[in-house]
Amino acid sequence: MAVKILIVTGDAAESLEVLYPYQRLREEGYEVHIAAPQVKKLRFVVHDFEEGFDTYTEKPGYTWPADLAFTDVVTEDYAALVVPGGRAPEYLRNDPEVRRILAAFAEADKPIAQICHGPLITAAAGSLAGRKVTAYPALELDMKAAGAEFEDSETVVDGTLVSARAWPDHSRWMREFLTVLRGKAPVV
């Protein structure tokens, strides 16, 4: 039986931050499921920087089906969790089911990979206090308010919590996450 990994996301998630770990983890031999508020075709976005803009811009991205709804997630069935960024975490953090999922993984000390705005969900679940993290740099104050020590670097590993700033950091983020994951839940 394959080791299962869960990705929690929703509409307006950053395309690359969902699909890169999805494909990378499958390539390693893990079974990956995507959970969302409901089972449907999710609509992702692409964030990028353009000259003359003070912040990133957003364009339509890929679509991808969710495998299951948050309410149907049995956390004990999964070895690790991936929390992508984009705008999705801004509204997902208000969902008690996604907070339940996140808290269960954190309390069980299962590997969690979070990127960009994904740590907003981890913060809402009360799972960042005393942890060292990175996130999209504009979230520094949010991370500190959640009780975390913020470091503006490509990737931060704190035990089983692996965080990155944004999609340009994917290679190191997944390399570090896979190191943690192989130690806790190797593919057999």
From TrEMBL:
Which InterPro entries does UniProt cross-reference here?
A: C56_PfpI-like (IPR006286), Class_I_gatase-like (IPR029062), DJ-1/PfpI (IPR002818)
Residues annotated as domain DJ-1/PfpI: 4-178
Pfam hit, one:
DJ-1_PfpI
Domain of life according to the entry: Bacteria
Give the protein family.
Answer: Belongs to the peptidase C56 family.
Q: What is the name listed in the Swiss-Prot or TrEMBL entry for this protein? A: DJ-1/PfpI family protein
Please name the source species: Streptomyces yangpuensis
